Amino acid sequence: MSDHSTQSTNFRVNLAGIVELLSGNLYSGPRVFVRELLQNGLDAITARRDIDPECPARIRFVTDGQTLTVTDTGIGLSAAEAEDLLATIGATSKRDELGFSREDYLGQFGIGMISCFMVSTTIVVYTRSAKKADAPVVRWEGRPDGTWSSRQAEADEIPVELTGPGTTVVLTGLPGERWFDYRTLATLISDYGQYLPVDVTLERPTTDAEHLADNTVPWELTPAAQAEWCREHFGFKPMFGIRLDVPVAGLKGLAYVLPTGAHPSAVPKNRVYLRRMLVTDACVDLLPDWAYFVRVVADAEHLKPTAGRESLFDDSLLAETREALGQAVRDWLSALAREQPDDFRHFIALHATGLKSLGITDPTSLKMVVDSVPYQTSLGLKTLGEVLKKTGSIRYVTTEDQFRAVLPVAEANNLCVVNAGYVYDEQILEQLKIEQPSADVAELKPEQILGVLSPLDASTEARFLDFLSVAEKSLEGQDIICEVRGFSPATLPVVFLSDPEAAGIRLDNRMKDKSGGIYAGLVDIMCKDRPGEHAPRLIFNATTPIVNELAASVIQAPLVVESAVRGFYIQALMTGQHPMDAQVRAWAANLYTPLIRASLKNSATTTGGGAAGTDTGPDTPDEPVS
User: Fold this and answer.
1) According to the annotation, is 72 in a ligand binding site?
2) Which residues cross the membrane (predicted)?
3) pLDDT tens, 359-404?
4) What is the rounded distance in angstroms from the CA atom of residue 565 to the CA atom of residue 559?
5) For the domain 458-607, what is the CATH code?
6) Sign of the dihedral defined by the CA atoms of residues 152, 158, 163, 167, in that order
């Protein structure tokens, strides 16, 4: 019987291709090599501290512009460990080799070390293990063609920086690249490692070391220093600062409240550290979407990074953390509303629009809007929740013009009307109906206005019959019904209902001037067109002096009454933004002619002058027209 046994063979790996793959997909760019060197050094020091808690903790960068030497005082590697860990791309566990839990560190030697090929022609590592006294220094060299070699280092080639246990990495810059320039390195080291719990230094071969790590994180600074940190890193002076603490993730930090309005779709600039190492300065998934008005700086012990370690791994722990941070912001908002109402109103004025935009699709944001955002109502500023609690329902109009005009009627009759004329308001109310089906939420109906317009008794109605006849004749051709009712306020002479059964309502009010001249106040209740239903109505207020004066002038001044009625109607159409046909436009063009003639005639008669319209000659001074 033939032998069908097979032999396993390892894949051949093109290291140059791997480096290109890493730089183009796993990492955002070559700059991450500094983070990987810092992370490997920090992990090594963390490992050494477990067997030697008093060991020195330093990561030292030395550059001459072309060659970079990075030395840490960590646990170091034996020859076997160097071969296994440094030469194995994608090694995922240090626990087996070093005996420590994965939670104690972030990095992994293989991929992290390979990232250095993005900036260096070779990687040379000198390492001495802390596990054994008088351990030799191992020299490991990796090349971009995928080959490597390892041997015991000669005494004269050991870097002067490696004076005890630890590791020194020597990189030689790529031609034409400037990643090893002093200021470039200083910026990158500060960005990634500013808050590392070790001493991180940078120096030139002939200069003193510059210490770049500061163990004081922003949330441990004074309030003034916290605000200054925000200005330097986020670019704004914060309105408020919110302390963050999420024990399950080992997270602590600060949320800075933006001092100006922002759009929820703006890319957040949250700055996140894991065990004091910067992961990203543009984290997009740390906070719920509705918390767009804060920028966060935070450090977490237990959250996990993605493979490239430039964002957070979206697992159940991150989801729990996100919810906890959202709750912290909600708690802060509640406390602000309760303890600092003026500041809360200022906050809402800045960010209400953004919250509303999110409330359309996010139930949490909707609840925040309903409970926290004050709306303009005919009974003063109130949240939607307060309106529901006080009146048991919400009645709203959908434009600013509608609200401004309905306000006098609603105020005078204790009718609560919500101004939903701003962006997202109508959608918020529609969404509220969906989220709370039991809530009585609806657009204001004309019959609710008609309900406060009292019919006249028979004797009073009889007094206005001639006036109504003239009014309807004045508007002949417009298919409109004229009525007289009594309602408050007494300063509002007319209400125009374009369709009593429609939902859209427009009201406008022009108040009487101090001299007591003629004024017009038009209430326009506008609706969606429903052909064949009720004709529009112009309802006159029997409690206003101007309407009573017009009714009393039907016989003596019919042209004045006709012009006044048409004026009310034209103003109603203009205020309600209704289209005007040719007949109405003609009325508008000639509206003031009969009124001016009547005024001139009355003036001449009162002063005993000549007949109206008669030229009294140049020697007779004209009376001023008022």
Assistant:
1) yes
2) 105-126
3) 898 888 898 899 889 899 999 999 999 999 999 999 998 888 778 7
4) 10
5) 1.20.120.790
6) negative
Three-state DSSP at 469 gives helix
- Check for a shared fold between 15-211 and 458-607: no
Q: Is the pLDDT of residue 95 over 60?
A: no
Residues 6 or more apart in contact with residue 14 via CB below 8 angstroms: 146
Q: pLDDT digits over 305-337, tens only?
A: 987 788 899 999 999 999 999 999 989 988 998
Report the SS3 class of residue 179.
Answer: coil
Q: Which of 588, 565, 583 is nearest to 478 (CA)?
A: 583
Task: Find, among 287, 292, 289, the residue nearest to 325 by Cα.
Answer: 287
Q: Going by C-beta distance under 8 Å and a sequence separation of 6 or more, which residues neighbour residue 606?
A: none
**CATH classification of 218-339, choosing from 3.40.50.1100, 3.30.470.10, 3.20.20.60, 3.30.230.80?**
3.30.230.80
**DSSP alpha helix (H) spans, 203-274:** 223-234
Highest mean pLDDT (candidates 109-118, 142-151, 183-192, 205-214)? 183-192
Q: Is CATH 3.40.50.11260 what the domain over 341-444 is classified as, yes or no?
A: yes
* pLDDT over 70 at 36, yes or no: yes
3-state secondary structure 361-383: CCHHHHHHHHHHCEEEECCEEEE
Q: For every residue of 401-464, which 3-state class applies, written as one string?
A: HHHHHHHHHHHHCCCCCEECCCCCHHHHHHHHHHHCCCCCEEECCHHHHHCCCECCCHHHHHHC
CATH of 15-211 among 3.30.565.10, 1.10.150.240, 3.40.920.10, 3.10.129.10? 3.30.565.10
Q: CA-to-CA distance for 72 and 349, rounded, in angstroms?
A: 52
More confident residue, 445 or 248: 248
DSSP-assigned beta bridge partners for residue 137: 128
β-pairing verdict for 270-274 and 240-246 = unpaired
Are 147 and 128 contacting, i.e. CB atoms less than 8 angstroms apart? no
Distance CA 346, CA 259 (A): 10
134, amino acid identity: D
Per-residue pLDDT tens over the stretch 165-219: 999 999 999 999 999 999 999 999 999 999 999 999 999 998 899 999 988 999 9
d(C-alpha 162, C-alpha 146), whole Å? 26
- Dist. CA 27–CA 23, nearest whole Å: 5
Residue with tokens 């309105």: 239
Give the number of residues written for the chain: 626
Is 167 a known ligand-binding residue?
A: yes
Of 549, 539, 524, nearest to 453 by C-alpha is 539
Cβ atoms of residues 258 and 287 within 8 Å: no
Bridge partners of residue 395, in order along the sequence: 442
Question: Distance (Å, rounded) from C-alpha 541 to C-alpha 545?
Answer: 9
pLDDT at 444: 85
* pLDDT at res. 380: 92
Domain ranges for the chain = 15-211, 218-339, 341-444, 458-607
Annotated ligand binding at 590? The verdict is no
Q: Closest Cα partner for 288 from 355, 383, 385?
A: 355
